[in-house]
Amino acid sequence: MAEAASSSPQAWGLPLDSALALDAKAHAGVAWARVAAFVADTGLTEQQVMRACGVPASTWARRKKAGALDSEASDRYLRLVRLFLHASRVLVDIEAARAWMQRPEPSLDGRTPLSLAETTFGAEAADAALGRLEHGVY
Question: What distance in Å separates the CA atoms of residue 73 and residue 71, rounded to the nearest whole number?
Answer without folding.
Answer: 6
